[in-house]
């Protein structure tokens, strides 16, 4: 039986198509591969992007705060080495805008006189979920507990006060952080630091006005030079966003600083 060239070519094409279809069916029958999502470098950077707290580092034991961005500008204050400040925005310039003092004045310090908190040794997170965050480094353990806020049981503690052209809602006579005037959804039950056998608890008065915590964005750092522990919070979202920093130095709680990061 004779087969001409055209017929032979058709047979070859048909055979190749059949093989391809069978191969595709075999692939489709296989179990789909599981894809594990890894946190990218940009996502890690985003988490710490609001960690604009820094520690003063100056061999003279203090740094001068200038009224303007110049070494010749008027000195309007001083901050001791080891103290924490909040950098409003880092624009890669030599001079950085900060807040300082109880009345939150604004001024400038030279970049060479600070070290960002996020550049200190990180205390690793070993567990984090909606109601708990645990951190550990050597003999340091930090335990943060949060919970849902029961408004009905606490509504008697809420009040309002007028300030300029707007109303400020208060909780136990304190301005609230993280709510933007709405009812809080969650709160801090406790923040406890253990250093060996010593236990330090952040005072209730310093956490009771901080609402809507986000444990995934909490970070802790250790400053070996000053033997200081820093707990950095980045909470809520939108107009209610805030950042807070707690400091423990030589086993003693030194206080907190709360800022709006924009």
Automatic annotation (TrEMBL):
Gene3D superfamilies: SH3 Domains (2.30.30.40). It comes from the Bacteria. Transmembrane segments: none annotated. It holds the Pfam family SH3_3. InterPro entries: SH3-like_bac-type. Residues 51-118 form the SH3b domain. This is SH3 domain-containing protein.
